[in-house]
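Running this now, will post back.
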Amino acid sequence: MQTIFEPYLLSFIPIFVAVDAIGSVPIFVSLIDGVKGQKRRRIIIDAVTTATAMAVIFMIAGKYILRLLGITISDFQIAGGAFLFIIAVRLLFPGAEKKINLIGGDKDIGIFPLGTPLITGPAVLTTTLMMVDKYNVIPAFVALVLNMLIVWISLDRSEAIMNVIGPSGTRAFSKIMYILLGAIGVMMIRHGVEAMLLH
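Update: finished.
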């Protein structure tokens, strides 16, 4: 029984780390300050729908795009791993939290910047494609959907989360996620190099 669920769990954890749902809560709260009720729910729906759609499209078409460009999975693992490691290192420095520039008011705030790049950014796209290659489409898709459900709940309950753990708690949680993201980046580089050497 454990072997059946193992690919799902192993796909879920890296995507969970890359998405960093709890770390997105303070930014979400600051961006929708004063927005309540139906409008707030609409923003959350737009954000999660956009984030999920982008990740699923990349999950399906990502390999074909790489093949068209003549890029192997090993190449992508090494480049993607290096990219995740650099992102993690930059985010670990003080004052280098996720920076979002809000342009044009709150008209499409659910799509940009919340849906992308806050929820589904380059780190999520890279990690998702790696999970597809390593554990297949279905475990990666299920892991992605579960993570987006966690994002939905986190944003919907954002005020309660901020009241319980506060800004310091969310920052501490994010720092741990960034360290794990860096470790996942190193793991991807190692797997890419090993695959190249074997071929």
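Residues 7-15+36-198 form one domain. More later if anyone needs it.
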